[in-house]
Design brief:
This protein is mainly alpha-helical and 251 residues long. The protein has helices spanning 4-8, 19-37, 40-51, 101-116, 135-149, 171-174, 186-196, 198-207, 215-221, 223-231, 234-249, and strands spanning 10-12, 56-59, 69-71, 74-76. The longest helix is centred in the first third of the chain and has 19 residues, at 19-37. The chain starts with a helix and ends with a helix.
Length: 251
């Protein structure tokens, strides 16, 4: 069994639990971290967290809704919530893209990585990207989708469309370079991530290049094409804005 504290500086703290419940929690979180570590993308993320030398702790999520959370060097995650018989089980929902337990944990670890690297800043998104809520959720969903697409990941759900639910990504956006047509901000956000976190970005582009969905690899392969496609996404942005206005006035 991998010791994630010694190998990646990630501690598991079953705070609020005792006895069998505490050991069960620690065992399940360790199992899910192991799922992540067995994939190429997962190894890259864990190694990138370790690189920054700041401790990370995973502890139970107690808010009671279908969620997990991360802030600075902490992740709040309860694996039973997303288990087969859990309240938020992926097997009990038709909209389950990105809802497998390791996918939820990976998403939160992306937030932690951005925090320990000193780059976590939530900025607004608009138009075709408005359902991502903010720039950090855009990055977390993007990297989790690459993790899901990673060929070394053998048990997976589907690519997630955004951060407002667990709907599947549109097929045309899952095609090579297709993701850049999702909004006029897309190219700039990918460029910012590559610039702010060049180490992990380069490894994801090169080591996960065979993943069917990998916009970061597409960016490195032909950033001019990626920029052009993103600029041409204006009609999608306008359609999203008009739809929001219509909903607001009750059309």
């Amino acid at each position: 069994m991998i010791n994630f504290l010694s190998q990646y500086n990630i501690a598991i703290n079953p705070i609020g639990l005792a006895g069998v419940a505490a050991s069960t929690y620690t065992g399940k979180v360790t199992e899910h971290l192991t799922w992540i570590q067995r994939t190429t993308t997962g190894k890259i993320l864990l190694a990138s967290i370790k690189f920054h030398g700041k401790p990370v702790v995973i502890q139970p999520y107690t808010a009671g809704d279908c969620n997990a959370a991360a802030r600075q060097g902490a992740v709040w995650y309860s694996p039973d919530t997303f288990s087969m018989h859990g309240a938020c089980s992926a097997t009990q929902s038709a909209n389950n893209a990105g809802l497998y337990w390791d996918e939820i944990l990976f998403h939160e670890l992306v937030h932690v990585f951005r925090s320990v690297s000193g780059k976590f800043v939530q900025r607004p998104v608009f138009g075709g990207l408005s359902r991502y809520n903010d720039t950090e959720e855009f990055i977390a969903v993007l990297l989790t989708n690459i993790y899901i697409s990673d060929r070394s990941n053998k048990i997976k759900s589907r690519l997630r469309s955004d951060h407002s639910g667990f709907n599947a990504l549109e097929p045309k956006l899952a095609q090579p370079w297709g993701f850049f047509t999702s909004g006029t901000q897309t190219f700039g956000l990918v460029k910012s991530f590559v610039t702010e976190n060049p180490g992990i970005a380069s490894r994801i582009a090169n080591d996960v290049a065979t993943a069917p969905f990998n916009p970061i690899a597409d960016y490195f392969a032909d950033r001019h094409r990626a920029e052009k496609l993103s600029k041409e996404a204006l009609p999608r942005d306008l359609a999203s804005i008009l739809s929001g206005m219509a909903a607001a006035v009750g059309f």
